[in-house]
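Purpose: get a first structural picture of the assembly so the mutagenesis plan has something to point at.
Setup: two entries, given in the order below. No constraints added.
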Amino acid sequence: MISRILLRNLVRGPLTEPAPPPDEAALAELAARVNRASQARLGRTLSIREVDAGSCNGCELEIHALNNVLYDLERFGLRFVASPRHADVLLVTGPVTVNMREALERTYQATPDPKWVVAVGDCARNGGVFAGSAACVGGVSAVLPVDLHIPGCPPSPNALLKGLLALVESVST
Amino acid sequence: MNWTQAIERLRTGECSLVSLWGEPGRAHMALIDTKSKIHLLDLMCEENRFPSVGRAHPPAIRLERALRDLAGLEPEGAPDTRPWLRHAGAYAFLPAEGESLHQIPVGPVHAGIIEPGHFRFTANGETVVRLEERLGYVHKGIDALMAGAPLERAAALAGRVSGDSTVAYALAFSMAVESALGAQVPPRALWLRALAGELERLANHFGDIGAVCNDASFSIMHASCGLLREQVLRASNACFGHRLMMDCVVPGGMRSDLAAQGEREVRALLALVARRFPELVDLYENTASLKDRTVDTGILSPALAQQYAAGGYVGRASGRQFDARRTPGYAPYDELEFEVPMVQAGDVNARVWIRMQEVEQSLALLEQILERLPPGPVFSPIAPAQGEGTALVEGFRGDIFAWIRLGADGRVERCHLRDPSWFQWPLLEAAIEGNIVADFPLCNKSFNCSYSGHDL
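Result (structure tokens, whole complex):
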């Protein structure tokens, strides 16, 4: 059975779809923030650590989808890593709950410089539908310096890809 | 039935706990009896105290701790008085005593792209002696945000309690509102809700089947199931304009009708899955190295599943054949043919097998729905009024309970949403006992409990 599936996949070629163009608005947001020294050091690869700081899990599902065969994030030199100590980018979701604030701060401190913070989803921008809750801090920028926002509830894999490609472009040009 | 009688019926197993929640000065409890009738209790708490339910019925303990954190009511005689959703200072983990034990703290930030929570393992060599979960990291204060919210905002909040179950939550919330007001929903809307609900179940089951196999390092299943999941989300987007179908189910019906393109994409999806899924089931069943990891791993006993009234694949893999679509049941499932798979084994393999069977059932349901979808409007406006209502809806993970009290201005006075995970998380602690630490990801994924849905 497995040999049949593998052979079929070999003959059919990859299912991966062409990349979308990088997000213009995101490029503009990033242009001023990325410094040349880090560009030279990082080249075109970025390691991403995802941190759920109170999301409903919707953003995580779509971030997960970036790893499926159709989006195949790793072809762009972007990959998810298991520890902040291996990361260049923190991809943060959620309205930052009071209970996750310390863990988020400590994750940031554990990430070596140079580093970028990408806030994913409407909650991460300003708390989204949870804005104003006493149990939430309200947006990632209330806790960490944010380099890029990717809006959406949740952002589609294509929107995420566009934002992340803009980040790679700014870092590598 | 009064509060004390209810506790007794829970203790003897005559009734199962549906939920336990509170508001300032009042404690509420919902039970379900063996005939699937739901009983509601409303207790006025003098001096903000009420008799502990957890003392006689352990499944109530965490709900009671949350109730104390959120409503400030004191459960008298409670066996565990530690805070649960409100984190304040150091947390006293339960002790484990014996020779050569060591502790492994994991989380709240995990290695994968998953939700945050803390697991404290005590192990003897590789063998887990005790696992204790500490949750509440994604507590967003949804109960408090619901109080006083207009219906539309409350529905949006309900749809974001657990993003993977947004359709099921929006449906539970909407059905509770409709039951509070005695509102009628157009037939076509009921059928479209079932269409959305089954698409959601399919997407999640594909994701889970692949992820369990991935945690046993069998990545081809993960890649193949990931592709199927993506096609479900694209079809969902074509149907209702959102990949996860957020905000599509609203009190009174559906926000929009099924797009013509959507119907074509669902039919194409059904054909694709019919072609690809059987060979994946075959691959799973006939890969000895994979089955070696899943069979006999993380066994949950039928007795515990019964005591905790575990819903969804967790219950059905351990001999508890409960499905809210069938009992108490809701439209249009009374007119649809489907089976509720059930086995007794209770291991990781059984939870995967139940999901595979449920995929088959959802495919058959989707075909019936497309064939018999009635014409007509998909929304009928809700007139604001006072009322109290409940609903029990079968999400992919199990039964979601919703209770709502509406004020005369049509706003939400109080709303309580209980995720199936409340009764599944404690069982994961039991299932992992005696297994090796390296099998925890596999066991955890086979449960796939919600953090956000639980933490509220």
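The two ends of chain B are 29 Å apart (CA to CA).
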